[in-house]
Amino acid sequence: MKRYPDFLAAAVLAAAVLCLGAGACGGKAGSPPAPGEFRLDDPQKAALAVLTVEGVSFTNADFARFARLTVGEPEAALTAEAAGRLFDDFIERKLIVLSAAARGIDLSEEEKEKSLAIFKLNRAEGAAPPSEADNADLLEGVLVEKYMAVEISGITVPEDEIKAYYEVHKNEFLQPERLQVSQILFSSEGRASEILEKIRSAGENEFREAARTSSEGPEAKNGGLMGVFSLGQLPLELEKVIFALEEGRISRVVQSPYGYHIFRLDRKFEPRLRSRSETAPLIEARLLEQKNQAARDARVASLKETMSWKIRAENLPFVYPGSR
Question: Are 41 and 141 found together in one domain?
Answer without folding.
Answer: yes
